[in-house]
């Protein structure tokens, strides 16, 4: 649902189009800009041929889009031009598309920057999709978001650590979150009611089912919330991060039979900000009941 685009630094010289492309990137649009090369922002500023006010606008714009950038993890040959490098790397580790000022070899994965609009096929990214209710299919929707994020909130009010249909999906989510081995804030948010098991049960059950999938230098915090008498209940299912969010209509648990699906959608930024704040302690929409910490035991 979230895809990586390579953006030629020279496209900055068509400022209105460059600004449009950048503005239409980010998790809510399903498009991320690849840091290709690693110092892409610096290269883009250096490519800017204008000076004065316009150059200042470019610099300010590039400083404000960190949440739209992803590390490329691709080699870059400084003896070659940007487009040559992009096409070469695309052949071994594909981008979703390459946006450039020209396409001398008629590469079908290149979009000429001036042609980018809401009808350009490679540019169009669906913001929602129908997904089979199977653990891998559910988790793969969030793989890119989990890979690029450092603060991850898994929200499923009805998560049950003793039911395989929940645990199977969460093992994939945890694996994707730690694929790059970075330390992360990882939290699971669930609902508390009068029928909920004890805190000791949660500690024992989550430890038994989840710790072996967490790296030994990582942990997951389980946070239980109760709806306020005059407020909302924690009922929707989301994966949220500092980058944006994804909503799972039916839930994060897989269906143990065949044929069931659920709608999965990227959150509009305004809705994302509201839900992100709902699950932060300082701005929570619910009453905090308790929390536990599960340490990882998986040897890297």
What does this structure look like?
It is a single chain. This protein is α/β, with parallel strands linked by helices. Helix content is 28%, strand content 23%. The longest helix has 14 residues. The chain is elongated. The protein starts with a strand and ends in a 5-residue tail after the last strand.
List keywords for this structure.
Rossmann fold, 5-stranded parallel β-sheet, 13 strands, 23% strand, alpha/beta, 2 domains, Endonuclease, Chain A, 9 helices, 300 residues, single chain, 8-stranded mixed β-sheet
Structural class: alpha/beta
Quickly name the level 1 CATH class of the largest domain.
Alpha Beta
Taking the sheet with the most strands, its summary is:
8 strands, mixed
Strand order of the largest sheet: 6-12-11-10-7-8-9-13
Number of helices: 9
Termini Cα gap: 28 Å
Topology as a string of helices (H) and strands (E): EHEHHEHEEEHHEHEHEEEEHE
Shape: elongated
Percent range of helical residues: 25-40%
Short summary of the structure?
With 300 residues, the chain is of the alpha/beta class.
Can you lay out the helices and strands and say which pair or pack?
Blueprint: E1 3-7, H1 15-23, E2 31-35, H2 40-47, H3 53-63, E3 69-71, H4 82-90, E4 97-100, E5 110-112, E6 128-132, H5 135-140, H6 143-148, E7 151-155, H7 164-177, E8 185-191, H8 199-210, E9 219-226, E10 237-241, E11 244-248, E12 261-266, H9 269-278, E13 287-295
């Amino acid at each position: 649902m979230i895809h990586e685009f390579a953006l030629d630094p020279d496209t900055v010289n068509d400022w209105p189009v460059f600004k449009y492309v950048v503005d239409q990137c980010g998790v809510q649009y399903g498009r991320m800009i690849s840091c290709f090369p690693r110092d892409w922002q610096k290269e883009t500023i250096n490519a800017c041929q204008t000076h004065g006010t316009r150059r200042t606008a470019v610099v300010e714009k590039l400083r404000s889009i960190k949440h739209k950038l992803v590390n490329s993890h691709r080699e870059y040959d400084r003896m070659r031009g940007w487009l040559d490098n992009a096409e070469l790397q695309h052949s071994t580790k594909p981008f979703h598309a390459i946006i450039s000022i020209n396409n001398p070899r008629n590469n079908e994965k290149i979009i000429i920057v001036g042609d980018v609009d809401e009808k350009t096929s490679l540019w169009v990214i669906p913001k929602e999709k129908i997904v089979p209710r199977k653990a891998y299919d559910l988790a793969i929707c969030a793989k890119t978001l989990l890979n690029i994020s450092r603060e991850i909130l898994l929200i499923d009010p009805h998560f049950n650590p003793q039911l395989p249909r929940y645990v199977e999906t969460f093992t994939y989510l945890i694996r994707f979150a730690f694929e790059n081995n970075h330390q992360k804030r990882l939290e699971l948010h669930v609902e508390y009611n009068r029928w909920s098991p004890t805190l000791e049960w949660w500690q024992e059950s989550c430890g038994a089912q989840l710790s072996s999938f967490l790296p030994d230098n990582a942990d997951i915090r389980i946070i239980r919330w109760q709806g306020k008498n005059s407020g909302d209940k924690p009922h929707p299912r989301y994966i949220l991060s500092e980058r944006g969010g994804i909503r799972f209509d039916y839930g994060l648990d897989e269906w143990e039979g065949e044929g069931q699906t659920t709608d999965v959608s990227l959150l509009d930024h305004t809705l994302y900000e509201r839900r992100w704040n709902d699950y932060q302690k300082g701005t929570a929409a619910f009453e905090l009941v308790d929390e536990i910490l599960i340490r990882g035991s998986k040897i890297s």
